[in-house]
Amino acid sequence: MAAQIHQFMCLKDNFGALIHDPDTGATAAIDAPEAAPVEAALEETGWPLTDILITHHHKDHTGGLTELKARHPGARVVGSAGDRDRYEGIEVYVDDGDTVTVGGLQARVINTPGHTRGHVVYYFDADRILFAGDTLFSVGCGKSSELPASVLYDSIRALVSILPEDTMLYCGHEYTVKNAQFALTVDPDNLFLKSRLDEATKLRSMGLPTLPSRWADELRTNPFLRADVAEISRMLNMEGSTPAEVFARLRDLKNRF
Cα separation of 63 and 210, whole Å? Predict the structure, then answer.
């Protein structure tokens, strides 16, 4: 059977997610923003917590880790080797190209430095599911808060090079509406983007999440995946600039949007 996903809100606008292997019963929490919503999701689904997969060290992704581990001492905590010195509680350190198993499910670990120096994402190849943390958002990307924007650009381009279009993107925050509003300022003639903003606005008005997102839709609408598109460089008066330079400008503009 395919992996089962249960997504829920944490904190103000964080997403939590559980991924469950129905064949073995194993269940992983993706990040641990806070303990109570994770516990509520486990109770709602009836799934046991066997693993916690951490994408990066920021408190809004690890704040519930200590409490969850205390309540589920058998749960294995996995995190980036690049963040080894930055937070406690990781029991298994992983690096680029490693494989993490959740029961019979397998995730490929991909290093995506940029938002933080040790950020990793988890890609479940067989199920075409990417848990991207804060590297990528629906119609957006994370801030390059610890490393130059060019590093984050390289990380994102690496994902573009390997992900099939039918991949489903899960990420760390509900930012789609604001991201799409910004995207239209640099890609105003993109009809796919206008449709996504309309759809996201409608979903949020009903209290529904805008995630997961289809990777094919991201390729058509996410300006941070489209830094090599001529229309965007022209809008920024950056004809002749490299895509990495356009990306850095987009990130700077988004920071001030």
Answer: 24
228 has a pLDDT exceeding 90: yes
Q: Give residue-wise pLDDT tens across range 153-192.
A: 999 999 999 999 999 999 999 999 999 999 999 999 999 9
**Is 20 marked active-site?**
no
How many CA atoms lie less than 13 Å away from 200 in the CB half-sphere?
22
**Active-site annotation holder among 61, 72, 83, 187:** 61
Active-site option among 115, 119, 187, 217 = 115
Say whether 58 is catalytic.
Answer: yes
Confidence band (pLDDT; 50, 70, 90) for 87? confident
Q: Considering the candidates 20, 56, 72, 119, report the single residue annotated as catalytic.
A: 56
Active site residue 61: yes
First to last CA, the chain: 43
Q: Which domains does the chain have, with CATH numbers?
A: 4-170 (3.60.15.10), 176-255 (no CATH)
